[in-house]
Amino acid sequence: MERRPNSAFAGAGALLDRGIRDQLRLSWRLFRDERVSALKFGLPAFLALYVVSPIDPIPDFFLGLGQVDDLGVVIAGIILIARIMPRLAPADVVNEHLRDMGLGRAAAKPHARTEDVIDARFNVRG
User: Fold this and answer.
1) Taking residues 66-85, what's their average pLDDT?
2) In a domain, 56, yes or no
3) What's the start-to-end Cα distance of the chain, in Å?
4) Residue 61 falls within a domain, yes or no?
5) Euclidean distance between CA atoms 66 and 56, whole angstroms
6) Please, what's the b/e burial string for 63-88 (b: 16 or more CB within 10 A of its CB; e: otherwise)?
7) Does 115 fall in a domain?
8) CB 101 within 8 A of CB 75
9) Could you read off the pLDDT of 22-62 as tens digits, one per residue?
10) CA–CA separation, 117 and 110 (whole Å)
11) What is the DSSP string of the chain?
């Protein structure tokens, strides 16, 4: 039976789960890769604008509470970025990074034989 820590920060351990850490590492690698779409800059830019913006649901002059809502939005944004980033990248780029991280399967050797090519004709009726 697994013991769970009984403290105020016990739920924070989920953020440090290995799967989430690997997803964040993959997202960081994809963010730095120039082969990924330029849309990758949109959500981090939006998060930065939200944090520095004076317009806030809970104004920052309410000490403590105003900063907690910003922190919540930033954490949610980082998790969202980690989920969206692999979808912005081509599948072969994602697989390459996963292999480099030791998380993906080894690439199959490509077939170099020309006998494997099948030439066919198709008719499409509309």
Assistant:
1) 85
2) yes
3) 62
4) yes
5) 8
6) eeeeeeebeeeeeebbeebbeebbeb
7) no
8) no
9) 888 899 999 999 998 888 898 889 888 888 877 777 776 66
10) 13
11) ------STTGGGGGGG-HHHHHHHHHHHHHHH-TTS-GGGGHHHHHHHHHHH-S--SS-TTSTTHHHHHHHHHHHHHHHHHHHHHHHHS-HHHHHHHHHHTT-SPPPPPPP--GGG----------
Range of the domain at 58: 17-106
The whole-model pTM stands at: 0.59
- Give me 27's structure tokens: 């997202």
∠ at Cα 41 (20, 18), nearest 5°?
A: 10
Instruction: Judge contact between 98 and 104, C-beta under 8 A.
Output: yes
What's the domain count of the chain? 1
Q: What tokens were used for 20?
A: 């989430």
Q: Is 66 within 8 Å of 59 (Cβ atoms)?
A: yes
